[in-house]
Amino acid sequence: MESDSPVSMEELRNVWKSQPFSLGIPIIDLQHIWLVHIIIKLESVLSDLNRPTVSMDIKSSFNEALDYVSEHFALEENILEHFNYPKLKEHVKGHRLFVQKLIEKFHSSEETEVAALGLLQILKKWLFQHILHDDKEYSEYFAEESVNLKQYCNELLKSGTFPISKAQFLLYQNISTSLEADQLAPIQTKSIVHDIQNIWKTYNLATNIPIIDLQHIWLLKMIVELDRSLKSGDHESDVFQKVVTMAIEYTQVHFDVEEKIMRYFRFTDVISHMGQHKRFIEFVKLRYDQYKKGDPFAATHLVQDLKNWLLSHIAFEDKKIGVSFQHRIREILEFTKKLHSRGEVEISQDQQNLYKAVVLESPL
């Protein structure tokens, strides 16, 4: 959850103080302040649609929102589940509905400005409804039950499972009381697997077709690695270029396997689905050419496009395949074995291990 665009500290503070947003749970309040930051930044972008970088800024906002949601929801659900919050199921259901609306907004709009306006509306509604009501409800419940959240949250932070960037920490320092700020410090998540698990669970990406899910998880791994490299300023390294090339090549490999399954089992929307694959590969190759030619923004665009498209495509288009073939999983497993025996699909031990770790939410 990083940002390069400055946001007025005074405006951020005024919004935060305008309503009783603070729950008194430092790590949760930090993430909620970051949501306010994303909203104000997006409003600033939309106030000047003639700016040359507007398209990039809007994509950046979507990327920040996607990052925020997977990190925040995973943390919140971890805490609520750990302390057996009685309304956990309803709370998680609210999260999933929000994610669905978020992805749908990105997926359904061809115009970035329209998508951005929809995103802003969704984020504001979430801020003023969910946080002020549902989140406030669980914070009051924990207070009444005298639950020791501080100790558990500190353990989570020390584990490195949930990240706090320097930018988030500095905003929190400036908005919250010094006493609250002293309880936190910048820390980056240590495990790529945790990042993938959070995204997979939050965005409900499982199609329940093993080979497709395995390949999606492997693609997510590469995208998370690229995203981390971007945030660390390492996008000009040989490693970054190698992972970009691998991600593009593996996307094509995945599309080939998915299309073989759709054709063999006669998926009704196969032509349209394959068309989406073709257009995306062409688009990514264009981005990659821009990157190789030295476009200073191409690396950011490439990673954001890979990430945003993958999440929205899996959540809407690939889930249709899962629903259509939900009673034919055993047949698909047999078909996958035949593809593997003919050398038409490769499944490494590392891919299997990561798949098990993410699907079963267990450490590698």
Q: Could you please describe the fold and organization of this structure?
A:
By secondary structure, this protein is mostly helical. Helices cover 75% and strands 0% of the residues. The protein has helices at residues 9-18, 26-46, 54-82, 88-108, 112-144, 149-159, 166-175, 178-181, 192-202, 210-231, 238-264, 270-292, 298-324, 329-341, 349-359. It is globular. The mean pLDDT is 86.
Keywords:
15 helices, mainly alpha, globular, 364 residues
Walk me through the topology.
Blueprint: H1 9-18, H2 26-46, H3 54-82, H4 88-108, H5 112-144, H6 149-159, H7 166-175, H8 178-181, H9 192-202, H10 210-231, H11 238-264, H12 270-292, H13 298-324, H14 329-341, H15 349-359
Query: What's the count of strands?
Result: 0
Computed over alpha carbons, the radius of gyration is 21 Å
The fraction of residues assigned to DSSP E strands is under 5%
Helix content: over 70%
Order of helices and strands: HHHHHHHHHHHHHHH
Biggest β-sheet, characterized? Answer: none
Average of per-residue pLDDT values: 86
Low-confidence runs: none
The SS-based structural class is mainly alpha
Number of helices: 15
Distance between the termini: 25 Å
Overall spatial form: globular
